[in-house]
Hints:
Layout: H1 2-25, H2 30-39, H3 42-45, E1 49-55, E2 68-75, E3 85-89, E4 96-100, E5 115-123, E6 135-142, E7 148-152, E8 154-155, E9 167-173, E10 186-193, E11 203-208, E12 214-218, E13 233-241, E14 253-260, E15 266-270, E16 272-273
Parallel strand pairs: 1-7, 9-15
Antiparallel strand pairs: 1-4, 2-3, 2-5, 5-6, 6-8, 9-12, 10-11, 10-13, 13-14, 14-16
Amino acid sequence: MKIQKLLILILMFPSLISCEKELKEHPLPPQMKRQIEMKNDPKVQAQVISGTLKLDASLKDKTPKGATLFIYARPKGVSGGPPLAVKKTRRYDLPYDFEIGPMDVMIPDTPFEGEITLSARLDKDGMAGGGPGDLEGQLDTKAGEKNVELILNNQVPMPAIDASKSISGTIEIDPALAEYVSKESVLFLFTRPEGVESGPPLAVTLAKEVKFPYPFELGQAQVMIPGNVFEGPMSIHARLDHDGNAKANKGDLRGSIKANAGDQGVKIILDGLVEGEG
């Protein structure tokens, strides 16, 4: 048995030498090396705040799917500007055990000490700024505190819908193109700010089994991206799609018009025929 172990060590020796050589030739990045050093520094660990993030029972059914979790710290009394420290993850289960401290500061060598306000947010779009529908929580504590309990107990409200800014009217079919209408067709209606030709629409809606002339209304309630506001001049596009796919295809009918938020009695005529995919 001893001979077998010796043979294994002899066979592994070149690999061990190679690994050691590779580590010397490719040292750890300075940032990673610093993180490791800080994790092993008792003085740094003494300043770490640890605890559990929980969800208030009243928000159990309002957790946004696929949300990104942000936990960030600011000196108590500071509400604006970059956070002192931040942690971000998409891999979590609530309740979630967390730590945040000197190794998470945004600006290297910034002291993580004294009274701290911890904030947490489940963010729907994964962006650093919060938006309607996100869940948030906050707690005042201090550097080095352990076993804190941070509760997600607030949902960012949706913006108020101003009905006076909605655009309404009717959609009609050019009689010369009536033969292209079928019961299976889907009507897509969307808006973009004036001058914007591509990218996600500002607002969008669709309807099936429509009868013409078709009454429509577009406003804040149909805005695609939370936080965007339905206002100003824009172009409205309508398309009668034969396969129900959001992408235009040959034989679909389309029409467009320019309008301003709040316009009423707008008339859109489907007078164009899509000649190819677009």
